[in-house]
């Protein structure tokens, strides 16, 4: 009997090794039928159940094996794997601990234990477990791979790369290691090497899902979007329901502005993985981009429930457009930063070496250096013809070079145009940081050293909040690029004003609030305008009638806002609504929605893009009234309208993004155009539409202020703005030098008509 049992078990093991799993399982059943307490056969049945994707059954067999013979470290290792597959992580951890009691210093148990601890977000303990295992066996491939992944997650990209490189010395054709090495290289700013590593992984294993997903992600981040789509399609062919593959495909489509396809992709993702991080918010946001409002209200209600329950349901940027709830905006920002951009170790790097440029490329501006000045670094991915740069350039030029040294830190390339040449010359120096990792750039700024680092991105495209997570400067400021809190413990201040953050609203912001004397949005007083406006016919407008303008991003247009606009058109004969022609799908949907509300689609006029800002400003002057949006106001767009002499009607909400136009109107001396409810907004719009002489007078006031007395109108006073901004920086820096913590303060006072 003993010989027959041993023969069957040997045969079962041989079948398992050949991949004949059903035959192996049959032979094991024969063994345990005759010997129910045969621990080795019970263990093998557990292994076979795992191999055939039945972890619940595996746990049953493995527990039976341990009841027959408790001191089995191999069984504990297998049990830990099965329990982890079932999500029973604390029990899995206990199994690995038991295995280590039985077999001290087992590198497999230590590596698997590290995996469970990482899953439990116990990162320090996971790191210690991996390091212990690698001290026992420095060349154990799973520990090198798993530890590398932990280090990627923790943002220690140099150390992660070192583990993957060591693993590839042992296993040069390990496609998964090559794929993860590519991600580490990308995070270190070595984009070309990252793509090459992923391409090699793809050549080795074009069928491996992790390779396809990582390659797609790297191609997206390097801007090779069509290639990313093609790779993503291969991933979806391999695994049509894979959540990461669906999310990658949606992200590539989003960057290509194919929002109808984004929505379809995210809908599929949410059917398969209803709680996938940020997917529901991205779906709502994409639907908003195309003004696809069918069923949108129910989606937004569901999104709010998810957020109130503390789930990662929406990216912070989405929340500004979708709901005016500052409490949820703060919670969402804090959760996102904790998940993606936690505070990092600020220990300086030794920059020279193969993995980091010792000194990034620097372009000198026109200003001579002087000792003892406050050194301010503006960090941005938008130093091209982008609203942030267009708004800020005048202030950069007006900075007092006797007291401030102004450094630009460029995160992306923007080519060379007359405007970008002007912008570069406004800095004392411009650092090209494209080839640097977050940690390397932070170390470089600390080495200068920089007194104040200013983030001009926030949560917008091209963001590098990870730089600030490494604390590149003693004072760190959020400014201009993002109209809300970043929720980050390492951002000390948010530049605002009395209107966008009224007294009493500080509790909705993680930063200390610095209130500038007037509107926090700067204006460029040297912006060019075309010599004269085009004719109405040339701009596609009717010769007669009121022109209501809303040159805003389509995602800011809510159904409730559009209802009001359509009622205005119905009430004002011969009026038209002038909108941006961003995407054909959005134009088609807005025309259809107008018809549903009883308004001829022909009364919506869509303005195509023009070559440059002067042409846009000139044609915008043809509008009679700019209609603002809620909950996400027009920001630089509202300032453009006011500069063009077009009055802006706004409705002030609760959050920062919902109060920016009110701030600009206050600084422009037009508080009568600020309303405080959508009902009041609609009434005021009707009053103005019925009084063309009043609109004409408002236009004349704006144009006269811009032409003759900009210093008397704070919105147009660039020099005064620059002095106030410098005073704010000096006060922040002085507190830091004294060792005092950041604290809110206000410079001067502004009457808040929107309070």
Description:
50% of the residues are buried. This protein has 755 residues and is of the alpha/beta class. The protein is elongated. Helix content is 53%, strand content 8%. The strands form two sheets. Strands 1-4-3-2-5-6-7-8-15 form a nine-stranded mixed sheet, covered by helices on one side. The protein has a six-stranded parallel sheet with strand order 11-10-9-12-13-14, sandwiched between helices. The termini are far apart. Among the domains are: 361-482, Rossmann fold; 547-716, Glycogen Phosphorylase B (Rossmann fold). The protein has 32 helices and 15 strands.
Helix/strand structural class: alpha/beta
Note the main sheet: 9 strands, mixed
The CATH class of the domain at 547-716 is identified as: Alpha Beta
- Strand coverage percent: 5-15%
Shape: elongated
Gyration radius over CA: 30 Å
The CATH architecture of the domain at 547-716 comes to: 3-Layer(aba) Sandwich
- Report helical residue fraction: 40-55%
CATH superfamily of the domain at 547-716: Glycogen Phosphorylase B
CATH fold-level label of the domain at 547-716: Rossmann fold
Oligomer: single chain
Strand order of the largest sheet: 1-4-3-2-5-6-7-8-15
Which labels suit this protein?
Rossmann fold; 32 helices; nine-stranded mixed sheet; alpha/beta; disordered C terminus; 755 residues
Question: How are the SSEs ordered, and which strands pair?
Answer:
Elements: H1 2-18, H2 21-34, H3 39-51, H4 55-68, H5 73-85, H6 89-102, H7 107-119, H8 123-136, H9 141-154, H10 157-170, H11 175-187, H12 191-204, H13 209-221, H14 225-238, H15 243-255, H16 259-272, H17 279-289, H18 296-308, H19 316-322, H20 326-340, E1 361-364, E2 374-380, H21 387-398, E3 404-410, H22 418-425, E4 429-432, H23 438-447, E5 452-455, H24 465-469, E6 475-478, E7 493-497, E8 512-516, E9 547-550, H25 559-571, E10 576-580, H26 584-596, E11 604-607, H27 613-620, E12 625-627, H28 636-643, E13 648-651, H29 660-667, E14 674-675, H30 678-689, H31 692-708, H32 718-737, E15 745-746
Parallel strand pairs: 2-3, 2-5, 3-4, 5-6, 6-7, 7-8, 8-15, 9-10, 9-12, 10-11, 12-13, 13-14
Antiparallel strand pairs: 1-4
Helix pairs in contact: 1-2, 2-3, 3-4, 3-5, 4-5, 5-6, 5-7, 6-7, 7-8, 7-9, 8-9, 9-10, 9-11, 10-11, 11-12, 11-13, 12-13, 13-14, 13-15, 14-15, 15-16, 16-17, 17-18, 17-19, 21-22, 21-32, 25-30
């Amino acid at each position: 009997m003993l010989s027959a049992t041993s023969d069957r078990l040997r045969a079962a093991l041989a079948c398992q090794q050949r991949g004949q799993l059903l035959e192996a399982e049959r032979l094991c059943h024969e063994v345990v039928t005759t010997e129910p307490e045969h621990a080795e056969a019970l263990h093998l049945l557990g292994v076979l159940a795992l191999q055939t994707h039945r972890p619940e059954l595996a746990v049953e067999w493995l527990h039976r094996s341990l009841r027959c013979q408790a001191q089995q470290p191999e069984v504990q290792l297998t049990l830990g794997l099965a329990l982890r597959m079932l999500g029973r992580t604390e029990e899995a951890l206990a199994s690995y601990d038991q295995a280590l009691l039985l077999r001290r210093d087992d590198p497999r148990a230590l590596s698997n234990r590290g995996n469970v601890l990482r899953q439990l977000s116990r990162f320090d303990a996971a790191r210690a477990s991996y390091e212990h295992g690698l001290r026992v066996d420095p060349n154990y491939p799973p520990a090198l791979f798993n530890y590398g992944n932990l280090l990627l997650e923790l943002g220690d990209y140099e150390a992660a790369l070192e583990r993957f490189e060591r693993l590839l010395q042992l296993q040069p054709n390990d496609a998964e290691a090559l794929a993860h090495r590519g991600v580490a290289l990308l995070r270190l700013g070595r984009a070309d090497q990252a793509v090459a590593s992923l391409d090699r992984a793809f050549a080795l294993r074009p069928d491996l899902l992790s390779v396809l997903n990582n390659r797609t992600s790297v191609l997206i981040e390097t801007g090779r979007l069509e290639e990313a789509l093609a790779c993503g399609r291969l991933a979806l062919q391999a695994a049509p329901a894979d959540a990461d593959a669906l999310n990658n495909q949606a992200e590539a489509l989003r960057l290509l502005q194919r929002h109808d396809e984004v929505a379809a992709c995210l809908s599929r993702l949410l059917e398969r993985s209803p709680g996938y991080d940020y997917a529901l918010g991205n779906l709502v946001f994409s639907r908003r981009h195309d003004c696809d409002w069918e069923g949108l209200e129910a989606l937004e209600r569901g999104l709010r429930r998810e957020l109130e329950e503390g789930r990662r349901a929406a990216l912070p940027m989405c929340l500004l457009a979708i709901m005016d709830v500052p409490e949820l905006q703060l919670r969402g920002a804090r959760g996102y930063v904790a998940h993606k951009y936690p505070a990092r170790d600020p220990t300086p790097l030794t920059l020279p070496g193969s993995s980091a440029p010792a000194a990034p490329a620097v372009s000198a501006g026109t200003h001579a250096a002087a000792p003892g000045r406050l050194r301010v670094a503006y960090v941005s991915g938008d130093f091209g013809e982008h609203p942030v740069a267009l708004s800020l350039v005048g202030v950069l030029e007006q900075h007092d070079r006797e007291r401030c040294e102004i450094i630009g830190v460029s995160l992306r390339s923007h080519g060379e145009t007359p405007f970008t040449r002007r912008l570069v010359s406004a800095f004392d120096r411009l650092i090209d940081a494209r080839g640097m990792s977050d940690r390397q750039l932070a170390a470089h700024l600390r080495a200068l050293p920089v007194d104040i680092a200013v983030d001009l991105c926030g949560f917008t495209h091209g963001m590098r909040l990870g730089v600030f997570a490494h604390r590149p400067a003693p004072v760190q400021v959020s400014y201009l690029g993002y109209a809300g809190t970043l929720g980050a413990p390492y951002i000390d201040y948010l530049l605002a004003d009395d209107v966008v953050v009224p007294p009493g609203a500080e509790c909705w912001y993680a930063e200390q609030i610095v209130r500038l004397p007037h509107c926090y949005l700067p204006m460029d007083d040297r912006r060019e305008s075309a010599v004269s406006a085009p004719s109405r016919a040339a701009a596609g407008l009717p010769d007669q009638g009121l022109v209501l303008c809303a040159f805003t991003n389509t995602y800011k247009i809510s159904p409730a806002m559009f209802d009001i606009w359509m009622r205005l058109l119905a009430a004002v004969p011969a009026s038209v609504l002038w909108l941006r022609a961003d995407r054909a799908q959005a134009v088609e949907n807005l025309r259809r929605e107008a018809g549903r509300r009883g308004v001829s689609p022909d009364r919506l006029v869509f303005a195509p893009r023009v070559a440059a800002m002067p042409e846009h400003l000139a044609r915008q002057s043809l509008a009679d009234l700019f209609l603002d949006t809620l909950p996400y106001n027009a920001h630089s767009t509202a300032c453009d309208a006011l500069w063009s002499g077009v009055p802006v009607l706004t409705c002030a909400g609760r959050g920062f993004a919902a109060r920016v136009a009110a701030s600009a109107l206050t600084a422009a001396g037009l508080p009568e155009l600020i309303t405080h409810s959508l009902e009041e907004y609609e009434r005021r719009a009707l009053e103005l539409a019925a009084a063309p002489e009043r609109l004409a007078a408002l236009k004349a006031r704006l144009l006269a202020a811009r032409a003759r007395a900009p210093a008397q109108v704070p919105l147009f006073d660039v020099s005064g703005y620059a002095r106030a901004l410098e005073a704010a920086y000096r006060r922040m820096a002085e507190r830091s030098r004294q060792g005092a913590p950041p604290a809110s303060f206000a410079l001067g006072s502004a009457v808040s008509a929107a309070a």
